[in-house]
Write a structure and sequence with these properties.
Elements: E1 2-7, H1 12-28, E2 32-37, H2 40-45, E3 53-56, E4 59-63, H3 69-77
Parallel strand pairs: 1-2
Antiparallel strand pairs: 1-3, 3-4
């Protein structure tokens, strides 16, 4: 099971990023737990200054803007 954190204050892009993660995981048949992190101090601890950010199994894989669908699928599969 993959542990995914979506970092962001709750803006529309952050919500879209969370939906993209859930949709991609469902489409690929990958079990994920998705946690939305809105606390700025916790976001900063990941070194992310631009949101939304995506952290998979403790590794920051994306920050700023929406990820490309293909890249997101690759990150979830690795």
């Amino acid at each position: 099971m993959k542990d995914v954190k979506v970092l962001g204050p709750g803006c529309k892009r952050c919500e879209a990023a969370e939906a993209m993660v859930r949709d991609a995981a469902s489409r690929l048949g990958i079990d994920v737990t998705v946690e939305k992190v809105t606390d700025y101090a916790e976001i900063a601890r990941f070194g992310v200054a631009s949101t939304p950010g995506i952290v998979i199994d403790g590794k920051v894989v994306h920050a700023g803007g929406l990820p490309q669908e293909g890249a997101l699928e690759k990150w979830l599969q690795s």
